[in-house]
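User: Fold this one for me? It's Peptidoglycan-binding protein.
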Amino acid sequence: MSEESTLQTENGASPRRRGRAATAIAVTAALLSAAGIVAAGFIRSPAQAVADAAPPPPSLLTAQVEYRVLTDSVILRGSVKAEQTIEVMAGGQTEGSPVVTKLPVKPGQAIKAGQVLIEVSGRPVIALRGSLPMYRDLEPGTRGNDVAQLQTALGSLGYRTQGDDRGFFGPWTKAAVTALYADRGYAPLPALPEGALTPEAAAEEVKTAQWALEDLPKDAPAVQRTRVGEELRKARARLAEIEAASGPMVPESELTFLGSFPARVESVSVRIGTRVSGSMMVISAGKLIVNGTLQPHQKGLVQPNRPVEILSETMGTAVSGTVTNVSDVPQSSARDTTEGGADAATGERGYPLVVRPDTPLSTQFAGQDVRLTVEAASTRKQVLVVPFSAVSAGVDGKTSVTVLSFDGSRHRVPVTTGASGNGYVEVRPAASHGLAEGQKVIVGTRRQSQGGVADD
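Assistant: Here's what I get for Peptidoglycan-binding protein.
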């Protein structure tokens, strides 16, 4: 019998078999341990199940205390227009219905003083510089501020009128008007109505009366000589009167006065051959300004001289401006000009305001609907501020903020609030408490829910 057989007989099993058994026992124990761990993950007590289902504790939302210049703003819509906008109307230059016979300008075109805007039934409409609109025909011999304005406009184009008294349509002014029309290819209309005595005819009457006086015999009665002399005096007076009243006249419909140049053709509503009886074109002059309307609740917030941002959303361009006028008289609003409002009649009454850009706007702004952000108030200098949501009020009406320290502790700081704007409020801590730039204040809490994150 071999030695291995002897050992197997004595111990009842060989060493190799005993090793295999030990390994199997170890593996089994490991599997049972793992199974226990897995089972422990699925088997929970009722109390543990309730605890696991509860939401996690809320996290704090904080903001930093900071220094900034605090502004309060009013936002509304505005429309960009020129300082002066006028309609060129068809006048009564000729009998019957006037017809457009020449149209030398087109929409968007810049025009200068002295330029012909349109020709109606062969008669021109000329643009001149001036603020007083034409309200009557200007004829030789007339006087007034409108005549003085005409003289100034003629002088700016190089036509001298200094020989006449200012505001009197005399011979120098007549000559200047004649030259203005002639240089543009037209003859001015005569001042005297058809059939009236002409200066030439009146001069012949003077000549006839002069000859009659000279032909009297030397021994003619004194009465006869006096009578002939009186006829000569009357003829000379009539000639002077006719000469003063004759010459070129300017019909109301042939001049359009604009406040400044270059001006701009906004629109043309006629074409050559059109028979017209109303507006023919719209002309704008002067710098571009912005008109807006304040709602009643905004009226007390905006005063003249407040700064404004003018934003063209079409071009993505913003420029600065200043409120120059806020009307105290409400007007019915033709459209809703509040931010986000629709272009529709509202019937609401608002207060018109005018914004003048700090630098001239380019013509690309003309006619645009823009956003106006008016600075209603400002602290002028940097002040200590926190978000609105950081300030709380107690039952006693006192306000405070809650500061979150670096170690996670919290403490309340009594504060007095000041100016507010754009979501922030000025805070001044009580004398016995400190509040510094960079500290964190609690503005809310955030809870994790099954559907996502919820802020309190």
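One thing worth pointing out: Confidence is low (pLDDT under 50) at residues 1-12, 27-43, 335-346.
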